[in-house]
Amino acid sequence: MPTVATNDVETYYERRGDGPPVVFVHGAIVDHSQWAPQFDALADDYTVVAYDVRGHGRTGGSDRGAYSVDLFAEDLAALVDALDLDRPTICGLSLGGCIAMTYAARYPDRCSGLVLADTFGPTPLTLGERVQRRALRLTIPFVRVLGYPRVERAMVWLQRRISGEGVAGDYGRIEAIRETGPLMSTAEFAKVIRALASFDRTRVDLASIAAPTLVLYGEHDAGFVRRQSAALGALIPGAEVAAVPGAGHAANLDEPAFVTERVRGLLARAFPDGERSDATADGGAGGSEPSAADGAGDG
Fold this sequence. Notes:
The protein has twelve helices and eight strands. It has an eight-stranded mixed beta sheet, with helices on both faces. The two termini are 18 Å apart. It has helices at 36-42, 69-82, 95-106, 127-135, 139-146, 148-163, 171-179, 186-197, 223-235, 251-254, 256-270, 278-281, and strands spanning 3-6, 9-16, 21-25, 47-51, 89-93, 113-117, 213-218, 240-244. The protein has a single domain (3-285), classed as 3-Layer(aba) Sandwich (Rossmann fold). By secondary structure, it is α/β, with parallel strands linked by helices. The longest helix has 16 residues, at 148-163.
């Protein structure tokens, strides 16, 4: 099982291909295989890396009492260093997008491109959104009693009643990811959810992001994600914003071919000459690993 030390945890990752490096960061309570369609499709032309964020999948938890998006971004920076990846493009979805934008703003000279999918910035745009983020913490007591799969199914049902059937997209794909890997403990769930709910405490200077940026959102995603995507497009210099037709919150799973082609377009901007870095030309650290679809963990 390939792992690498990132701060105080051993982070599980999968790596394949050869060429300019691309790192995929998954959403909350899933694992690296959430990006499997794009990981597999791009491995012929790029060095692709997908990993399990602290608290998730085969990386698992840690002794820290609390997590934050800041910590997750520092874990990502440590992963990039440990694998000797030269200015990768970072692709993040939902929580992964929060992590990716924090990394890109903090280390603008260590990022060649940025894809932000179905995500949001640190600042709530409406009172309702602020309340919604704080309410995430209210799920923790219910999860302690019922387990997070039941609680999330109830939340998906409620979202569909409020925002329409399309908001969750093909939710069965998310459930399938969770069924094949390690079960996240309630303690780790609580730390991850609190980190997500407190993202507004993280300082992210979006204007400092220098890399070509693509912001994607599902056509049927929740209203706050659509609003946040427009705001990210306005605040990140030169960012391109695009809706994913027919998709919900996991747009890359709902419409994988569309998302893959848009990511390819961003990568052509990020690596205009298709040049390999010294690290990727030599195969880099860790060698070639199995597909991200081969070892889905639990989120």
